[in-house]
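Database export, one record per block. Field names are fixed; values are copied verbatim from the stored entry.
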Amino acid sequence: MTPVIKIKTLLEVLRAMKASELQNIFIDELKVLLPDWRFVKSQRQFKRVEEGVVWLFHINCINHLDDFDAVADVAVEFKSGKENICIVGAELGNIEGVGQKRFSVTSATEAKSSAERMLCYFKAHGMPFLRKYSNPVDVISTLKQGGKEAMLISPLLNQHPEQINRLTNFYGVSI
């Protein structure tokens, strides 16, 4: 039995290059729109230190043949030096309650307008999430209550007790 080797056509290679170029334009536009955030290229995320926590705005690209869709999630990371105390986060559409929110990019012009639309959506849904869950008391309370909101911010139910303990011990919070 001979192995099947898939060879990309020149058109497929050019299309893949086009999608990556569109992704670069999209990310470059977000960099302009988020001047107070540091972009970490290796993780495709924007990072900002805010009152003892780290805010993360992460971008994912879902590639198609000629274009891509961008999706984003946000997270709050509680740290002590380099030690990670707890991290909670969610995808922007899930925060709103509508499921995954995609921003289509099919051209350079659309890359810029999609970046602007994503930023507006981030400001409407991601920023309130980041502000609320930067307070360890809100995180502990939400995780202790359980339910839909707890699963939104931390989908691995078996980690909730450890997250509660770490935050409670580190911040000296009792609820």
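Remark 1: Helices lie at 10-33, 92-96, 108-132, 136-145, 147-153, 160-171.
Remark 2: The first strand starts at residue 38 and ends at 40.
End of record.
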